[in-house]
Amino acid sequence: MHTIDLRSDTVTKPTPAMREAMARAEVGDDVFGEDPTVNRLEAMAAERLGKEAALFVTSGTMGNLVCLLSHCGRGDEMIVGDQCHTYVYEQGGSAALGGIHPRPLPNQLDGTIALEDIEAAIRTDNLHFPRTRLICLENTHNRCGGAVLTLEYMRAVGQLARRHGLGVHLDGARIFNAAVALGVDVRALAADADSVMFCLSKALAAPVGSLVCGSGEFIAEARRARKVVGGGWRQAGIIAAAGIVALEQMVDRLAEDHANAKRLAEGLASLPGIVLDPARVQTDIVIFELHRDDMTPEGLAERLKERGVLLLAIGGRRLRAVTNYHVTAEDVEPALQVFSEVLG
Ligand code: TLP
Does 1 score more than 90 pLDDT? Predict the structure, then answer.
């Protein structure tokens, strides 16, 4: 049975070009700063994002964590969307390990946090209050269905933050998806953030790794934070080599994932019991609701799995399907056929 795996874009396996590059990678001890392949990847990431420096980390979770630890001290407050990954899916690591107080504000359907909500949440100087230090954004926004935050919105948050002397951290796990969807240079989307985390091991199909980008001074702090969470690694050039291929070869093709997601969404929207507005699908993530008395989202996922279509139930009535490098345009119709059979 041919499996169509729509659980995440994280399931992607390295391409032959990546495996080749990994086999040939020149390596050294990265804690000494001596891994030439890691150094090359970091320089390349900084250049692509328009920042001074970059740091290679194991995962998106570690990347977000080291950024938050670098921006905030114990008792400082960070403004986050209540649906953002760092608030929902990272075990509250910044509070557990950094004593950082989260101030969750509602994410709108389009992935933004209303500017007036941010403005109203910023603390005044009062000994009863924590100090607001940071605003965290996510682009694209995972739990908001891969929604893309626009350049105008990023700029507006940047201006607001500067007016109040706050930092901006961007969880850009899928920032290249956002840039491709908007048809803009990724630098423009990163320009208003003081730190940006992006992932190689999601839609770009590298096996492991994320990067944190920012000023030279910020990255020096982040490097210290990475070390204390056990992320100082050694001959990491083996995996950095795949990351270089990901940046060189895997960005432009993201448009295919987006087109496949759109087609999938349009097909799903016409099926009985599925609630979904295909117009909201902008990138590779399709989130929809199941409104049926005879089937739970988990039950639907189970029945689809028996027929080779994998996706995730993500709480309440919601399910998530994510297109990716291993899901071709030719897979979309058969996947929809399986949905149609299961849903009757
Ligand atoms: N997201 C994963 C799961 O954890 C939900 C996925 O399958 O989408 N930021 C964002 C916006 C993410 O979507 C993710 C991973 C992360 C950070 C964390 O990255 P990793 O998994 O590398 O720690």
Answer: no
Ligand 1 centre distance from Cα of residue 142 (Å): 8
Percentage of the chain lying above the pLDDT 90 cut: 99
Q: Closest ligand 1 atom to the C-alpha of 171? A: 9
pTM for this one?
Answer: 0.98
Write the residue with the smallest CA distance to atom 3 of ligand 1. Answer: 89
Which one of 3.40.50.2300, 3.40.640.10, 3.30.420.10, 1.10.3720.10 gives the CATH number of domain 15-249? 3.40.640.10
161-168 contact pairs (CB < 8 A, 24+): 161/135, 161/192, 164/122, 164/132, 166/79, 166/122, 166/132, 166/133, 166/134, 166/135, 167/71, 167/133, 167/134, 167/135, 167/194, 167/195, 168/134, 168/135, 168/136, 168/137, 168/192, 168/193, 168/194, 168/195
Atom of ligand 1 lying closest to residue 58 CA: 22
